[in-house]
């Protein structure tokens, strides 16, 4: 593993440590203004990291055939794709917290540990995805079709399966006892000498499995832009680091962005078609960045101007 990889992992670990143990060591419910401030900070960090990408690929800190310009554009495009798809994830997480009645002041803690687990899972999935694309050209078609299938699901009916019926949750409840009530911010407690999981742990597992499901969409989408593992991983992680603050901003407004899912579906269609046509169509890197930005912005604007029926903006 190169120095750049090690440095990036240490940098992310430092950010997570400061977030949980310094800046948010007390359980509380972030107000909208506070959440907006943190969202702006995480977004600034994510966008500013493009300067590191420019320097790294311009000075040979990592072995790659990409020019600094190409690497930076690919990073920003991947960052934007993951950020846009994370919005859909935020709405699902809000439903999970509502279903399990997770106290608002403990939601940040669940999101923190959920994202920590997501970093590990995504690194493994990214390395596996890059390996498959490098070894088997036909995997481009598999990933492309997977993205089109995911887009069709977004256009179709919502999944109304109760969270409690998630196979992972059912499996956990068969393995260990689960308390009926919350016990502060604890995931596990000792009850009559026996360790038992709390509903907070169940909610965490639900968030983790949900993230893995969304990663099945987002990682192939970024691999459709570039197969450079460091760019895929760094853009992915820098985007989801701000997921906690983004959650507190968007969860209260989730009904106001009813048309956003169509933008997300079109983004998946665009990247999926791009992967399917990778041997005959080689669009400039900036084209993907512009198309994805326009689709995402369009979905937000249309949702605000023409809110879904019964969801007027007030």
Automatic annotation (TrEMBL):
Keyword Kinase listed: no
GO cellular component assignments: membrane
Main location: membrane
Coiled-coil ranges from the UniProt annotation: none
Family matches, as InterPro entries: Integral_membrane_TerC (IPR005496), Integral_membrane_TerC_rswitch (IPR022369)
Membrane topology: Multi-pass membrane protein
Keywords carried by this UniProt record: Membrane, Transmembrane, Transmembrane helix
Family: Belongs to the TerC family.
NCBIfam families named among the record's database cross-references: R_switched_Alx
Official protein name in the record: Tellurite resistance protein TerC
Lineage: Bacteria, Pseudomonadati, Bacteroidota, Saprospiria, Saprospirales
């Amino acid at each position: 593993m190169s120095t750049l990889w090690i440095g990036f992992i240490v940098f992310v670990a430092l950010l997570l440590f400061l977030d949980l143990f310094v800046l948010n060591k007390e359980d509380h419910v972030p107000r909208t203004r506070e959440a907006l401030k943190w969202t702006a900070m995480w977004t600034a960090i994510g966008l500013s990291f493009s300067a590191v990408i420019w320097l790294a690929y311009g000075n040979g800190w990592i072995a790659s055939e990409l020019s600094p310009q190409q690497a930076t554009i690919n990073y920003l495009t991947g960052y934007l794709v993951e950020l846009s798809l994370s919005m859909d994830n935020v709405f699902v997480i809000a439903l999970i917290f509502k279903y399990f009645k997770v106290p608002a002041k403990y939601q940040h803690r669940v999101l923190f540990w959920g994202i920590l687990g997501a970093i590990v899972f995504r690194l493994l999935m990214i390395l596996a995805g890059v390996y498959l694309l490098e070894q088997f050209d036909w995997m481009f078609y598999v990933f492309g079709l997977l993205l089109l299938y995911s887009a069709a699901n977004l256009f179709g009916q919502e999944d109304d399966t109760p969270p409690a019926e998630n196979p992972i949750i059912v499996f956990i409840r068969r393995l260990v006892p689960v308390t009926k009530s919350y016990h502060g911010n604890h995931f596990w407690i000792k009850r009559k000498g026996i360790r038992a999981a709390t509903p907070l742990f169940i909610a965490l597992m639900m968030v983790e499995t949900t993230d893995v499901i969304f990663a099945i969409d987002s990682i192939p989408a970024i691999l459709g832009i570039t197969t450079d593992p460091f760019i895929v991983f760094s853009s992915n992680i820098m985007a989801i680091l701000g997921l906690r603050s983004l959650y507190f901003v968007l969860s209260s407004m989730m009904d106001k962005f009813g048309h956003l899912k169509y933008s997300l579906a079109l983004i998946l269609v665009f990247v999926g078609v791009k992967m399917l046509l990778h041997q005959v169509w080689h669009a400039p890197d900036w084209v993907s960045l512009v198309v994805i930005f326009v689709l995402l912005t369009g979905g937000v604007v249309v949702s605000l101007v023409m809110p879904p029926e019964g969801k007027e903006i007030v």
